[in-house]
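Protocol step 4 of 5: obtain the predicted structure for the target chain.
Materials: sequence only (see below). No template structures provided, no constraints applied. The aim of this step is simply to have a reference model before the mutagenesis design in step 5. Sequence pasted as it appears in the construct record:
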Amino acid sequence: MAGSNEVNLSESKMVVPLNTWVLISNFKLVYNLLRRPDGTFNRHLAEFLDRKVSANANPVDGVFSFDVIIDCSTGLLSRIYRPASADEPQPNITELEKPVTSDVVPIIIFFHGGSFAHSSANSAIYDTLCRRLVGFCKAVVVSVNYRRAPENGYPCAYDDGWAALKWVNSRSWLQSKDKKVHIYLAGDSSGGNIAHHVAMRAVESGIEVLGNVLLNPMFGGQERTESEKRFDGRYFVTVQDRDWYWRAFLPEGEDRDHPACNPFGPKGKSLEGIKFPKSLVVVAGLDLTQDWQLMYVEGLKKAGQEVKLLYQEQATVGFYFLPNNNHFHTVMDEITQFVSSNRE
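Step 4 output (structure tokens):
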């Protein structure tokens, strides 16, 4: 099946819960409709099919949200999620940015997935995921609505992530009692990739990021790995899919050994001797790009950086969207512990 665009949905159906299978299979069907062979993308249809939700200042399950324009020149928007007590009334506009009250509050800057082309900060599935992160981690979550490929390729997503980080770091109302903003970067798929590259800029600029949480991060390279050959088309994703998205995102004429795709590849930048944030890397054992994710972990280790690998052997892409499997709860517990370690 290698090199084809066919997916064996029956095999994946035997591995994941039914509602997860339906959810990701629908994504796969829609994604195939949106990508065009000439490298263009049907953005109008994508926006029509993507179920979106508005921000809600009325607390729901202990979380309220509101949207903020971070950069008027690019239209960059972020959605802020904050915890609220059960009896807390809907805040008025002057209370949305009231100072955090706990001694140490993790601020998680979240980058949604979608292979750089799909989804947004107001996609229903990511709105729900961010609310869950607030609930589990007792954190404030800032979900970044970065510009997407192919209309806005490299480095637009990284530029938007960097703008969001600088904005968060400058907000006095996000400071904990020690007058610091306790920042973590997180993301899934392309969002995990963005988190890494924004962290690189933070290191170079001196902004402190306490940690990175990468869920099935989207990395790759020119070489075809064993997992790409073994899992091509077996669990929702094909190698051909991945190649299309990299062509859509990378600069014209560049291959998959570009540092954006392959950070520890032949064109990559060494992390030895620099203070890179600690990392939690979550890898699904049925993800065809897992070899690249594992090589990323090894690259961090070889550079002397602190990294924890959480390998979920029987998990597929997107397992963290629904709390209907043990993998979901394991990952949420790990993330909670990871962002809480600096509270002590």
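Step 4 remarks: The longest helix spans residues 18-34. The beta strands are 63-71, 76-83, 106-111, 140-145, 182-188, 211-215, 278-284, 307-312.
Proceed to step 5.
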